[in-house]
Design goal:
Layout: E1 8-12, H1 17-20, E2 27-32, E3 49-54, H2 70-85, E4 94-98, H3 105-117, H4 123-133, H5 141-150, H6 156-171, H7 175-181, H8 185-190
Parallel strand pairs: 1-4, 2-3, 2-4
Length: 192
């Protein structure tokens, strides 16, 4: 992510956070369920800038849960803009994005930032970059739709997401059962 002076991009889950403390992380985007307790893992990190967003990893309304909203993705893109604007303050950096498992919300956030940073790059290439960062990526489709809208990609990010889901199902067939079990069958139907 050279335009941001970020040399290292990492996506992980909560259980992987302690291992990241050994690396120099300069920026963290945490995406957690609402009312999640503060994560102790960050006490072992060096100085870094951290932004936290709170919403559930769902794609359909569920009573008592917070559905990802366009404003959440707008905040992710604002985080990316602030990161780009601050590039003169550092030589390089390490961006870590995490959610609970490092599979859905965090990968959707990273894809959104990649699409923002590389506006002329094809959507399929953006997903290739995402796969290199986090092979098990299954981005939250609602978040990708919002990013597509906010970045003026005219449905192209969503179309590439369909291809990504198809690729992921071939690579990891167990996603069929997992996504169905957690109420994400609509994403399975999207797969091409």
């Amino acid at each position: 992510m050279k335009p941001l002076s970020i040399s290292t991009l990492t996506i992980c889950g909560i259980d992987e956070l302690p291992a990241q403390s050994q690396r120099t992380v300069t920026h963290v985007l945490s995406i957690l369920d609402p009312n999640w307790p503060e994560l102790e893992a960050f006490q072992a990190y060096g100085e870094h800038k951290r932004t936290t967003l709170n919403f559930h990893d769902i794609i359909n309304p569920i009573e008592g849960q917070i559905l990802p909203q366009q404003e959440h993705v707008a905040k992710i893109l604002s985080f990316g803009k602030d990161l780009a604007d601050s590039k003169t303050e550092r030589a390089e950096g390490h961006l870590l994005i995490h959610c609970h498992m490092g599979v859905s919300r965090s990968t959707a956030a990273m894809l959104s930032l990649l699409a923002q940073t590389y506006p002329d790059e094809s959507e399929d290439r953006l997903f290739e970059r995402l796969q290199q960062i986090r092979p098990q990526a299954w981005p939250n489709s609602l978040m990708i739709k919002y990013a597509d809208d906010l970045l003026g990609r005219n449905g192209k990010l969503v179309d590439a997401l369909r291809r990504h889901y198809g690729w992921q199902l071939k690579r990891e067939p167990e996603y069929n059962n997992w996504m169905a079990r957690i109420g994400r069958s609509r994403e399975l139907e999207m797969a091409v």
